[in-house]
Amino acid sequence: MTDSPAAVEQADVVVVGARCAGSATAATLARAGRRVVVLDSARFPSDTLSTHLLWPAAVAELSRLGALDAVSELGAPALTHAFAAGSGYTIATPFPEVGGIDYTLCVRRTGLDHALVRTATDAGAEVRQRCRVTELVWDGARCIGVHYTGPEERTVELRAALVVGADGRRSTVARLAGVETPYEADPSGRDCYFAYWRDNSTEWRSTAAQWRVGADLGTAFPCDDGLLLCLVQPPAAPGRLRPGDAERRYAAALDRIPPLRERLRGCERVGRVRSATGIVSYFRRSSGPGWALPGDSGHFKDPVTAQGIRDALHYGRLLAEEVAPVLDDPVRLDHTVAAWEQRRVRECREIYHWTNRLARGTAMSPLEVELYRAATTDPDLAAVTTGIFSRTRRPAELYTPARMARLTAGALWRHRRAPGPVFRDIAHEAASTAREFRTSRTTLRGAPPVTGISTV
Question: Where is the FAD-binding domain positioned along the sequence (predicted)?
């Protein structure tokens, strides 16, 4: 327990966490005329461990939020083309348009998050930095506020109709609400290592590129300040990282992806290798009486598909739009946050399964190779593939019965002398599809009931 609060304050909404989901929620609520107080333990500008590719749908969210001009001023180039190569085949497409945006951005989190915090402040939200939440305040089963300590180390009680936990995968709000353990989780088959390089290429500065060689996956995304984000996702290694492991594994993965090494030719690395291991994609219970969890605090997908920032901005904004008119009515508020959570589950479960497939950490299967081969000469198939990442197309559009029949026939023809791997791949994909269907119809029907709650 913390000391008794030295002060009690009142707001309409408390947002814990000022980064993507938190700023999107706060700015939207403030523009709706609500008093919003945002608490964050960091002092901005502040970095955070994160990959940071923004597909057109995420850039469109920045535009809706009124933050795009500030983010564009950071100088990241507009990435107008997608490039994906594997097993000797290449898929190259322009990006689809979303909300008038037809390009991708890669913006380092220090500048991106600071621009979002300024956007929330300009909208009328009060952002309090270097403030750490220590407790939730409860009235029975309803959350009615938080206790937090600021730079002066005194405890403040801040009461509100809604507490929004936008505080990431290690969410304090999720832990204090008793929902830290996910109700659906899928460990990744990949680790993630990335570093920045001073980019020496002019030819590739407008292209977001990915290569798959064997079981390794590597990407190169031009970003702000003339830099390049180079990320590799090799198969997950057992055990915890020891000193020097990240550097060694990063260099080894680059050596196993010769075309990525060639992309880096003439580039100079800037700073250390950063790592994320033990990655788990999940859904947590994300709403209850008086609280909600947008962003990674409630739902997280492996970085292999780079969906996190878009979803944080999108569902933070939607939460704010939906609760703003009903904050003064607890019954309607509870119904609204529950419906918001169920909407996110419904809309994200398909891309969640798709992401988990790409995160297996295995070499390309015969059907994947056939997909790449077909997409090199089929513009519509290539557009569907790029559109899935941009959330303008669904994975189900890629694997229609007719298309799967063509891919299977092509793979069998190319492996006609030894078709065993193709049949094993077909059986594996059928089992995966059945498992995903069961998960979507059971665990991911919507939010499960709360099984436990912390009170003070």
Answer: 11-183
